[in-house]
Structure formats: C-alpha cells, structure tokens
Design goal:
3-stranded antiparallel sheet
C-alpha cells in the first residue's frame, strides 16, 4: 500500500485513504483509481488474462472451462464450449469479454471462466 495516497481531485482533501484498489476521500465521498507510477497520463493499456494466465486480445478464440448458468435458459453453457472472435470490454461486475455463444447469442463472460484456445 502507498503510505501517502494522493489528495482528492474534487475537494483537495489530504486525508484520503486506500480501500482495495480505490482511493477514497472521507470529506466528499469521492472514489477513484489512482494513476500507477510509471503509467502515462494518457490511456493506460489494460491487460486481461484468462483462467490459466494467458493474455487475451480482441479476436481470440476461447474455451469455457466450467459450466455456467444462464438466466432465462433451462440449460447453461457447458464446459468445453468454444467461443470465437471475442472482444475485450470494460463490463459490469467483472465481465471482461463480449462475445456470441452458439445457441445463446450475445453475452458477456468473465475472463476467469475461459482459457485461450
């Protein structure tokens, strides 16, 4: 952990604290992700890894490693299902992959439940 987190960008409060990956301001309640040391102030590239640690990229094919339940479907996605042409996104609740699964259509998956094919 950083001993001296940066001051709040909204209210300039110096009494900020770290909570998991966020920095929190106790005065105004603002939460933000601090800029990593050595990262450019522009766009920082995010690295997404699969369940076994392989780096994923747009257009890769992946295989689902565990059975997944799908809301509104009587059957889920079986382990071993191949998904082609993935797209990496900044999704909701940790869903990193936007894709089309045969028989289910468009959906988002977590990188922790797939491995690179």
């Amino acid at each position: 952990m950083n001993e001296n987190p940066p001051p709040c960008p909204k209210c300039s409060c110096e009494y900020t604290y770290e909570m998991n990956a966020l920095v929190v301001c106790p005065e105004c309640g603002h939460e933000w992700v601090p800029v990593q040391a050595g990262a450019e102030s522009g766009e920082a590239e995010r690295v997404i890894k699969d369940a076994v640690g392989n780096v994923l990229q747009d257009g890769d094919s992946v295989v689902v490693v565990k059975a997944l339940k799908v809301k509104g479907s009587p059957s889920g996605i079986k382990a071993g299902t191949k998904v082609r042409n993935i797209r990496l996104v900044d999704g909701v609740d940790g869903h990193d992959i936007d894709c089309k699964v045969d028989g289910f259509g468009a959906m988002q998956l977590k990188a922790s439940v797939v491995k690179k094919a």
